[in-house]
Amino acid sequence: MTVAVVDDHPVVVEGVRTWIAQDPRARVRIVSAGADLNAVRRGAGQSADVILLDLELNGELMLGALTELVDSGRRVIVFSQHVDEETVRAALDAGASAYVTKQEGPQFLVDAIVETAQDRPAVPPAMAGAMLSDQRPHLAPQERAALLLWFQSRSKAAVAERMGIRETTVKQYIDRARVKYGQVGRHAASKAALLARAIEDGLIRADDIEDR
């Protein structure tokens, strides 16, 4: 599995390289590293399985860039010095697959990369703390839109055509929604279970399901 690291501190990038190299699973490879977001948009990191994104680059919070990357179908883990619950929730609301603080160490970071690359839940400590008081998953707008169209009895191919994206991206959005429900301990393996969860949480209204 491959990862693109976006961080403006070379010492952090080298630390991540070392942590990954020392991991006994030895299945993670960095394909791009540095502070240039264009490297993951159009450069060497554009095909990476996971993007590891520093939430603050050159003094600016990257929530907008995070949303853009998620909306384009990318799996993004936020790796940040910010530890407050408000920031963690904001990143999850923007669609981050996981949130790891820079104080949490190599095990949590590498675990998050491995699990996220395989569309499995990853809940590092800071993320778990932020989620304790909120048992609803944090779905990105595109994930919610894909779910609604899919619940309207559309095929994934039809959803892709409606949204102007690839069918594989639609599947990623739906799979990620399932993963995020798993992260809060509310698994939804079937389409019916996922629909019930979404209605229960007010993410989708029952009358929204009627095909238009």
Short structural description:
It is built from 10 helices and 7 strands. With 212 residues, the chain is α/β, with parallel strands linked by helices. The protein is globular.
Descriptive report:
With 212 residues, this protein is an alpha/beta fold. The chain folds into 2 domains: 130 residues, Rossmann fold (3-Layer(aba) Sandwich), CATH 3.40.50.2300; 69 residues, Arc Repressor Mutant, subunit A (Orthogonal Bundle). Helices cover 47% and strands 13% of the residues. It has a 5-stranded parallel beta sheet, sandwiched between helices. α4 links the parallel β6 and β7. The mean pLDDT is 86.
Highlighted features:
alpha/beta, 2 domains, 212 residues, Rossmann fold, globular, single chain, Arc Repressor Mutant, subunit A, 47% helix
